[in-house]
Every structure is written in structure tokens, then in C-alpha cells.
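User: Before I run my own analysis I want an independent prediction to cross-check against. Here's the chain; please return only the C-alpha cells and, at the end, one sentence I can use as a sanity check.
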Amino acid sequence: MSSVEERLAELGLTVPDVVPPVAAYVPAVRSGNQVFTAGQLPMRDGALIATGKVGDTVPPEVAAECARQCALNAIAAVKSVVGLEKVVRVVKVVVFVASTPDFTGQPVVANGASELLAAAFGDAGIHARSAVGVPVLPLDAPVEVEILVEIAD
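Assistant: C-alpha cells:
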């Protein structure tokens, strides 16, 4: 078990199985000393944990939980390509939030992912980030997260 998995276990979490792609792509790709994940949806046990738009049917607190699950799924995608012990740092996180036009709390929703990554990777989990409001996401998910990590050779 990696130190990342040990930290997650302290939070009562485990790295899930990789979520199968819903279209023609792979969950993560290594290029040089970086791993790029595909956008991860808030899937848990084979189903979305919420659907709809933030600011309408999805409260911001539930959306933050979705972002946290997306980040956990991104960790699983990285693990499937290189193993978590090789991660040097989380470099960049992009969080897409399907939200109503008047909702402006995308950064608060994105904190669900950012806080999980910092807890899992320690200082190496502190990253640059974008939080973007969008009109709709695949499968009517309220949140989608992709991450870029640097890895050791």
C-alpha cells in the first residue's frame, strides 16, 4: 500500500477501481514524466452519485462531494498507469461544474477535489487549478475533474 493509500485510509477512503470510459478514450495516459487523466465523473459503485445542475437540483455541498469523488477516481486512473508511489506532485487540476447561469460558486465546488488531493498527497498535492462553469456535462453529471501529475522516472 502506498503512502497515498495510507493517507486515504485514514480518511476512511480507498482507491476505487478505474471507472470504465463512457466513450472512445482511455482513463489516463503517460507522456514523458507526466500523467494526464481523462475527465473523471462522480461515479461510485458504477453509478453517478448525483445528476443535474449546481444552483438548481444539486446543492453546492453535494457538488463538492462529487468533485471529491471525481478526484478519487482520477487517483485511480493515475494508479492504473504508473502506480501512486511514482507521483512527485499534482501539477494542475481542472474542475468543470455544470451549473445554472447565475451560480458563481464553482471554486467552492472545486475545493472538494483540491482538498482531497492535498490530503492524499500532502504538500505534493497542492496544485494549480481552474474551476469552470459549463452548461452540461456527460451523463448529466454535475462535476467533472481532470488532473495532471508529474511522476518520477
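Sanity check: The domain at 3-151 is CATH 3.30.1330.40 (60s Ribosomal Protein L30; Chain: A;).
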